[in-house]
Amino acid sequence: xxxxxxxxxxxxxxxxxxxxxxxxxxxxxxxxxxxxxxxxxxxxxxxxxxxxxxxxxxxxxxxxxxxxxxxxxxxxxxxxxxxxxxxxxxxxxxxxxxxx
Length: 100
Description:
There is one protein chain. The protein is mainly α. It has one domain (25-97). Helix content is 81%, strand content 0%. It has four helices and no strands. Helix 3 (25-63) runs antiparallel to helix 4 (68-97). The radius of gyration is 20 Å and the shape is rod-shaped.
């Protein structure tokens, strides 16, 4: 969210180069802005998937009185996947839009 706020705050600078025909600054700015928006979408999707995985793992495990260590392992594994997805979401978004 902070990164998106910074992009909005500096928007007048790259937009000032729009009248120049051979300037790549506006194109790179808009690609980077779209990459940040896509990164936010990836983070939201990752969190929703983590929630679905936790609900599918936790509720049946508690109802069948599965060992606490199995539940903790599944939750830890899900949390690690969530952290990796959130950390790598920026790289994925920038590589999809070729905004690097």
